[in-house]
Design goal:
Blueprint (H helix, E strand, L loop, with lengths): L1 E7 L2 E7 L5 H8 L18 E4 L2 E4 L13 E3 L11 H9 L8 H14 L5 H8 L9 H16 L2
Parallel strand pairs: 1-5
Antiparallel strand pairs: 1-2, 3-4, 3-5
Bound molecules: FE2/S2 (inorganic) cluster (2 copies).
């Protein structure tokens, strides 16, 4: 076992876990942040997408040791204080989710896209979101939601 200090959603947490522990399970089982989902466990579906210093990462394959040097980890619970992030609002307006299982990962991926490209083309959205799978096939609504969030950011 090893002790790590993690910066998650602007709070410091001390956890004692196996040295090779993966971030997804530390978030879910030690910090109770269950919005980050387990899908494939091999970085292929995007259900576990979180941000590390603003970059989207797959928590299911990310050793906690790699993000315990003060990196800023953001989960779906920390994306906004009150669910008022433009991506979250646009998601609701577009009624993007079906079962919802993949959607926190989708939202985190979309938020990362819009952070570095606030006005992506439809092709850029599809390309950036390509690794986030949805077994319910909500892909078109997700594209529309990202476009809606982009408009909100632009204030149009
Ligand atoms: S659970 Fe992490 S990418 Fe699928
Ligand atoms: S909404 Fe069901 S898996 Fe995406």
């Amino acid at each position: 076992m090893k002790s790590y200090t993690l910066n998650v959603n602007l709070n410091q947490f001390k956890v004692e876990v196996a040295e090779e522990a993966l971030l997804l399970w530390v978030l879910r089982e030690h910090l109770g942040l269950t919005g980050t989902k387990y899908g494939c466990g091999i970085a292929l579906c995007g259900a576990c997408t979180i941000h590390v210093d603003g970059q989207p990462m797959r928590a299911c394959t990310l050793p906690v040791a790699n993000v315990a040097q003060g990196q800023k980890i953001t989960t779906i619970e920390g994306l906004s204080q009150d669910g008022a992030h433009p991506v979250q609002e646009a998601w609701i307006e577009a009624q993007a989710p079906q079962c919802g299982y993949c959607q926190s990962g989708q939202i985190m991926q979309a938020a990362a896209l819009l952070k570095h490209n606030a006005a992506p083309s439809r092709e850029e959205i599809k390309s950036y979101m390509n690794g986030n799978l949805c077994r319910c096939g909500s892909y078109m609504r997700i594209v529309e939601a990202v476009e809606g969030a982009s408009k909100k950011i632009a204030g149009t």
